[in-house]
Amino acid sequence: MSKQNYDTKLSLLESMLSEDALPPRTPIDVVVQEAENLYVWIQQDKEALTNIGLDWDTYAEDLPIRAGACRYAQGVWMKERY
After folding, report:
1. pTM above the 0.70 mark?
2. Is 22 contained in some domain?
3. Which of 18, 59, 67, 75 is in the most buried spot, having the most CB atoms within 10 Å?
4. Residues 13-69: pLDDT tens digits?
5. Residue 40 belongs to what domain range?
């Protein structure tokens, strides 16, 4: 699934300028787990969050896709590094 997420987001990632990318301050495995936790936790608050203007599809529903893409990219990077 992560490879599919990565392929889905690849054109967006490639369109980003490399000088805009910052090195992570937190290990990627921690970031991805926290993103997945957040996705689970916010489900119960969907109505309240959308009522105050959160674009649910853009930010909440896309979160596991972005996390999966990040997880796969980390794996590719680790393969290349070692």
Report:
1. yes
2. no
3. 67
4. 889 878 888 888 999 999 999 999 999 999 999 999 999 999 999 999 999 999 999
5. 2-17+30-81
77, two tokens: 């990077």
Q: What single DSSP character describes residue 18? A: G
**Structural domain count of the chain:** 1
Q: Assess if residue 25 is contained within a domain.
A: no
CA–CA separation, 7 vs 72, rounded Å?
10
DSSP 38-81: HHHHHGGGHHHHHHTT--IIIIITTHHHHHHHHHHHHHHHHHHH
Distances (CA, A) of 23 to 19, 61, 71, 76: 11, 25, 15, 16
